Amino acid sequence: MSLLVVGSVALDTVYTPKGSLIEGLGGSATYFSVAASVFTPVKLVGVVGSDFPSEHIDKLSRRGIDVEGLYAVEGKTFRWSGRYGEDFGDPETLDTQLNVFADFSPKLPEKYRNTPFLFLGNIHPQLQLQVLDQMKSPKFVAVDTMNFWIERERELLLEVFKQIDMAVINELEVRLLTGIRSPLAGAKKVQEMGPKILVVKRGAYGSMTLIGDEIFLFPAFPTDDVTDPTGAGDSFAGGMIGYIAGQNDISNDTIKNAVANGTVVGSFCVEGFSIRKLEKITHSDVAERLEKLRGMMKF
Amino acid sequence: MSLLVVGSVALDTVYTPKGSLIEGLGGSATYFSVAASVFTPVKLVGVVGSDFPSEHIDKLSRRGIDVEGLYAVEGKTFRWSGRYGEDFGDPETLDTQLNVFADFSPKLPEKYRNTPFLFLGNIHPQLQLQVLDQMKSPKFVAVDTMNFWIERERELLLEVFKQIDMAVINELEVRLLTGIRSPLAGAKKVQEMGPKILVVKRGAYGSMTLIGDEIFLFPAFPTDDVTDPTGAGDSFAGGMIGYIAGQNDISNDTIKNAVANGTVVGSFCVEGFSIRKLEKITHSDVAERLEKLRGMMKF
Predict the structure, then answer these.
(1) How far, in Å, CA of B267 to CA of B220, rounded?
(2) For the purposes of burial, counting CB atoms within 10 Å of the CB of B182, is it exposed (0-12), middle (13-18) or buried (19 or more)?
(3) If you write DSSP's letter for every residue of A150-206 in order, what string do you get?
(4) Average pLDDT of B163-180?
(5) Which of A17, A89, A182, B279 has a CA that sits 20 to 30 A from residue B128's CA?
(6) DSSP state of A76
(7) What is the DSSP string of B172-227?
(8) Three-state DSSP class for B94?
(9) Do A206 and B219 count as a contact with CB atoms less than 8 A apart?
């Protein structure tokens, strides 16, 4: 079934120990869409400026992503620039220019409004609510957010959390949301805020997912072939929720397989700058690496 | 088969958000022994002062640990004191008094020298070499170390590494040893230094184990019932190597099951101060929790 994502599309300038990328295709909705497109048809809602290269639009279209909701408006595209250290940990942000993204106000094309699966990317909770208002009772809604919104727009964010099925956040965000230091106790508290399914991202260590009363632990795919970690979390979410939409099923078993598939999709993302590696992967690339990873967990 | 451990026995004063412990039984060899005793007979080599409470010796003996090699000498026992913050992360060390441990020079009772399994706890590499010299061709040798020895006694430590089968260290120690930031690439480099088996500890995220060319990923048991993390790593190592000795087998399958069992034993350790929880656990407690953890990994 089809999956709608709302979020940022950007031009990224990235420096890593493996090289650099100047104004490449980036943004959370970009990574999410390309990752999800491995498993299901995707509709993308976002905004770019009049300077946005048409070749980037072509790349998305080639992955079968519906870009009717990706509006090009007068002005400059959102730009982000960052530098990764030797350990490929959290990058140092060198520059952020919101540009046209600062006035982003998502309007869903009429034909998008009954999409059954929805992912609300990391945007202002007010905009997330605005998207929810335009949807006609989606079957499944997942959300991402960040420390900035948790700290500054807490009430609106809690309003969003009441209306969703799944949240995909990291351990720090769990702690900020709940004030609880124990990752497990904090995660349970987040569930009480709304989402029955909570995926807690642990970066290079994988994830812990709570599905109702069940806990699902999944490791990351170990690699020493990291080129650019940008978009890893978004690709993980995209692979995961794309898988759920592709199966058109939200049983616990499907959620667990979705985490596993998302993990593997995310592992491909970091092996190239921008979406260079991600845009090439197929169903069978994912299946093959997942078998490898499964082998590393067997005892 | 029987397992010999050489390391520290201490009196610990610990403050955690759950309470405090004043001069309780501690030390890496203590935690290791008690954990290993779940699976196999253990011989402990260490030193304590004349102030060491005999009740602590009794506790070890009750777990079937052979304490003939735990020498009591004139003077005060090694003391350590630390405080854990709200997140139970790395503790702040408040005080360290090596006391009689400063002059520790391990002498193995004659009957210990042909013990088939050996664990060299985190002591001066010179002392680790001294123990190796006294052993009569052990079947399997594992080692722990720390940043202090890596930085100050590198040459001696590399001498130790050449003579062992397994090292149990954390990601920071891998990086310090190799200068390589990628955990996987660094781990492979450590294998080249000697140990065919390398267990990389990831704290609350579990472990990554390299066994020759194989990679084995295992998560930690998630809990919100942490009381005192002291000894968690030593209990993990003890449970793991105790399991290997108990099976008297060093096949890849046994190593993987050992990691799994060690993980579970370590998870019990943190649920009580000192060895209070650890000394009570049985084979079936471990098996039961391991089944739970296995369930959390199934997809």
Answers:
(1) 8
(2) buried
(3) HHHSHHHHHHHHTT-SEEEEEHHHHHHHH---SHHHHHHHHHHTS-SEEEEE-GGG-
(4) 97
(5) B279
(6) P
(7) HHHHHHH---SHHHHHHHHHHTS-SEEEEE-GGG-EEEEETTEEEEEPPPP-S--S
(8) strand
(9) yes
- Residue B48, φ and ψ in degrees, nearest 5: -130, 170
| Yes or no, beta carbons of B181 and A208 under 8 Å apart | no
**In the sheet where A79-83 sits, what is the strand order?**
A19-26, A10-16, A79-83, A92-97
Q: Which DSSP state fits A263? A: H
Question: CB under 8 Å to B277, separation ≥6 — which residues?
Answer: B227, B268, B269, B271
What SS3 class is residue B4?
Answer: strand
ipTM confidence: 0.93
Residue A138 phi, psi (nearest 5): -65, 155
CA distance B47 to chain A (A): 36
CB contact under 8 A, B299 and A183: no
Per-residue pLDDT of A36-69, as tens digits, reads: 999 999 999 999 999 999 999 999 999 999 999 9
Closest residue of chain A to B172, computed from CA coordinates = A87
Chosen for mutation from B88, B209, B299 (greatest number of chain A CBs closer than 10 Å) is: B299
The tens digit of pLDDT for each residue in B118-136 reads 999 999 999 999 999 999 9
Rounded CA separation B140/B117 (Å): 5
Instruction: Tell me which of B170, B205, B247 to substitute to probe the interface with A (most A C-beta atoms closer than 10 Å).
Output: B205
Q: Are A45 and A4 in contact (CB under 8 A)?
A: yes
What domains are defined for chain A?
A: 3-297 (3.40.1190.20)
Q: Which candidate, A104, A97, A103, places its Cα nearest to that of A70?
A: A104
State how far the Cα of A252 lies from the Cα of A161, in Å rounded to an integer. 20
Surface of A (113-142) touching B: CB under 8 A:
none
The pLDDT, as a whole number, for residue A83 is: 97
Cα–Cα distance list, A42 to A48, A108, A116, A197, B164 (Å): 18, 14, 11, 22, 53
Residue of chain A whose Cα is closest to the Cα of B184: A224
* Tens-digit pLDDT profile for residues A83-117: 999 888 889 999 999 999 999 999 999 999 999 99
Q: Which residues of chain A have a CB within 8 Å of the CB of B258? A: none
A120: enclosing H helix or E strand: strand A117-120
A253 contact B CB<8A: yes
Report chain B residues whose CB lies below 8 A from the CB of A90: none
Contacts of A202 in chain B (CB under 8 A): 205
Residue of B202, B223, B226 with shortest CB distance to A205: B202
Find, among B59, B52, B60, the residue nearest to B77 by Cα: B52
Contact B297 A297 (CB under 8 A): yes
Question: Using CA atoms, how far apart are residues B236 and B39, in angstroms rounded to an integer?
Answer: 13
Q: What residues of chain A lie within 8 A of the CB of B223, using their CB?
A: 184
